[in-house]
Fold this protein.
Amino acid sequence: MSKNILIIGGGTGGHISPGIALYEKLREDGRMNPVFLTGVSDMRFSSLGDIETDKLYTYNPPAMTKNPFKIPFFILKFLRAVLKAGRIIRKNSIDAVVGMGGYASAPALVAARIKKIPVFLCEQNSVPGKVTLKMEKYCLKVFGTFAESTEYLKFPDKFVQTGNPIRNNVLVQITRDEAKKAFHLGHSEKLIFVVGGSQGAVRLNQLILGLKKQYPREFKNIGVVWSTGDFSFAEYKERSQNELDAGSLYISPYVKKVGKAYRACDICISRSGAGVMMELAAAGVPSILIPYPYAADNHQEKNADAFVNAGAAVKIKDQDAVPEKVAPVIFELLNNKKKLKAMSDCAKNASKIDAADEIVKYIKSELAAGVK
């Protein structure tokens, strides 16, 4: 008998991308029928277009607030979202709900709890988010990326280190030369992939512009695939055209062919959200990680430390992410094939390519046992 599974992911690409990866894996199983729920505002993420329209639902989960004047409105919006999620659960005869973390998943998880439907949680970061900490008591399993997460959980026996689900388009079978040509950078001797996460990163965009301006000779044979994020794309596209000799540069708000970008690059410069980090690990890409300093509970710093300790990355603090300090690190790595190979191997060792498979197995096992 098939099981209907509701996956909730929204807020950032770090919650949506692994949710889609899990959706893809459930679809491959003939006995699983997944549907996906996200926020109305999250429809800006083009990756959601890969989900069949009749399997994709939206609602309006409110963002958390500490403002006492906004709390009554938050409660009202939250209750409306719970009711909407409840109708979606009922319409699709949902057998289990999987929350991918973030505020967007909270109302649907509450609706599942009210209806006594089994709940599973996915936690991408080393420091669990508020939704995970609030809902762990009621879930069957917490599927996590980092073993360090157990230090923060009240029910660590529910934690399973499966890794973060990776989308099918991340691991592509293509030569590096072919991958470079996909970005019109086949002539580049070396290639850097720059990604600031789904929202982009102003600090990283400023850094890349500065590097290209201050080191034009050194970057002559270094190609750059530059994902600016939606909010900064227009500005930095114009500035790159007006302020740079923009040769050997591919600039885009979002790199849809992300698997080819990972395959093409020698190193990646990135924030240290768990989603992109586990993609880097799966693709075996050495990285320079620049943690976002205002992430909740400083989780990006701790995520980066885990990769540094594994030998897969170099960490640079946000305040040090300036051309004069980053350029020597880039050039040292690009000129050291042995070091890059070692980092690539360490990244692969830190990856869990079969994370989605493991999660699906646990879900099927729990549901087969008839746990409610």
